[in-house]
Design a protein that fits this description.
By secondary structure, the chain is mainly alpha-helical. The radius of gyration is 29 Å and the shape is globular.
Amino acid sequence: MSAGNSDELDRLAVANKDVVAELASEVINHVRGRAARPCVVVGGFGSGKTHALTAALDYARREVGDGIVVVWVPLGGLGVVSYAGLLYEIVVGLAAAGLADATETARHLWQRQQIKELERLALQELPGSARLVVVIENLDAVVEQLQATDAADWDTLLSKRSGPLIVGSAARPVPGLVPLVLRPLSADEALRLVSEHLRDEPAVITPELDTEVTGYNELVQGNPRFWTLAAGHLAAGRADPLGLAFDEFLHQLDLHFTERLRSLAPGERRIVIELARAGRPLTVTELANLLGVTNQTAMSSIRRLTDKWVKRVDAVPGTDKRLSWYDLRETLLRYHVQRPDRHSSTDLVRHVQQHWYRQAGRDGRGTVPTVDGHLLTESLDELHKRVEKVGTSGHPDTARRLARRLLVERATTNGLTNRATLHALMALGAWTGHIGDKRGGRTILTAALRDAEVLLGENATETLTLMLDLAWINIDLGNYEQAIAAYDAVIARAGQLGKKGLPIVLHARQDRARAIGENGDPAAAVAEFTEVLAARSQHYPKAHRDLRTCRHGLAWWTGKAGDPAGAVSLFDAMVKDRRASVWEKFHYRAAAAHMAGEAAERAAADGVLNPGEAVRRYLDLAEDILRSDHAGSPLARTARSDALKWALRAEPLDPNDLPITAVQAEDFAAMIGDALQAGRLSLADVLALRPSRAQADALAEVLVFARQPRPPRWRIDSARELAPHMSAPKAALILKIGHALDGDRKAESGLPAEWKPILAEIRALDAGTGRPI
């Protein structure tokens, strides 16, 4: 490259210039009609994958002018589960660039899987000599979702000289594409990146900042996302900009890893968390001992995690090199698990004190620095409001993270024995419970209740509200009698407050109604909800959210009390409420779909069960969620899984009606595996549905490693039938295990050492000489 071009590359890419240059070179070759290789930029969270793609394309545009048309597949290919779906996204991208106007035609072809006609639209010749580049973020996830029958079409698309150049980003290499692996930033590169962001304010780069960069860069392992955040805080002139950036970085890590961890099966999640806690590589035996399972079970989980989460590494120095050692692929995950505010209240106080001393040191004094109290209080009040707003709009994980930040800031500003700090602690406990950590939430709220009774008084509104939150968590933990007793105590205390206590009394009675229903008396729950709704409508007719919550409870327990069809009507009416948020309506629709299934069961006669209405409602709900701002919500996954669950209950069961598209692999394998083992489906039925490779991989594990004795050749035949539909590495391993079970000594000798005892356990199980795994 010329000197001028080299300067331009320096401007576009502070670091990883080799990756940007190589990708740009392939794009330029493609536009100029020379052979070009499809490439994927590989890196973990915040490693700069999108920036590298953008920088390479910008550089290529400066070299080739208008000869390039770039189509980005939106949202990382969300919903792209077939080759036809990918072609449709390309047509949509061309239409956005003014080069196609056939999106309705494309949708029609996509829905009917008319591949050749779709290809003619998506891979059409562009005006002049322009060439098409298709950019797919999270390409590894897209390729994993492509169905096994689409593999040949995908490979052909990659290799077409006359077709588009496929490039993308991924967390790991993708077969068929050249991997361009991003490396972490050095301390010098980190400082240069910050300087690039602050070129208009060079005075911000002080000698003191220069000395801090190395320490923080080691802490974040050279992550570009952190330094971009730091530049923003520096430009805004905030105190402790790197500390604030680190807090924000950890928050983003939380969002990133929480959703990813939630997608894992419990056993696999525990493997990942134990590796994060250990802070070092572990062997299969060590992991099995930590989890209290057999080596076979641990190895099976590790194998499912190997592509995305776990990697095999060299033996730890000074240990047995014959053992297999495993570690996390993304070591930043340890920050998500090993956080100071994830543990005891003592750790939390220590974290607050460290925050004080860090700020005091910045000001050169030995005391906590003073801040404009009025402005800070307003800012924290807004943060407290945002906690509630974010949580109630369907993002409880974010609410919990913000509540943790709020608590630290409140304690720093107001002290630990202060009403505002107590409210922040209460919010943290409540949202900890909401994300599923019920026992953790109960622990925090119990401690807060003791403080509230002393600081505020036993009958204070905040104290009684705290008792309500604790009782609610006890319902979720199954402690119904304990919860009912707590609600009775709240009602008695709030009753002494007269009209002021009426909202708390109604709240307690409403939640008590739920506890009564969960305790086995749905009819009594309906009666209580009916009375509370009448009282709310009389005294607080404009408290629309509280009225909706009460109607939700009434509708649900109406269904559980024996009238699911009536419950469906009630939920459908709530969906039409203009005051309800989109997120609330999604939950009403999910409840209505469930009740539609229960209504079908009650209406079933002569062994005929038709849950088609429930299935339709769940699938429509999942589609609408994916098109909304809540696309990443677990509710979409649950809706698809529930659609399949109800479809599998149909009598008689028609395999062709099973909606498996985009169902999470683990959910698919669990439900289909049960149906296969119960004899309700054949494996041929399932394969005719064209499961994705990930689904086939997960199903093979369920069938081949079933924990109960299986008939002769069940595992062997399952392995052979599923292998052609699986991803290549997993298919090879499953086939080898199948051959080994079939007596092939050569196949068995080629397996890793840790698989030998697993095979022995399976053989003993099927022979009736071993206990269920």
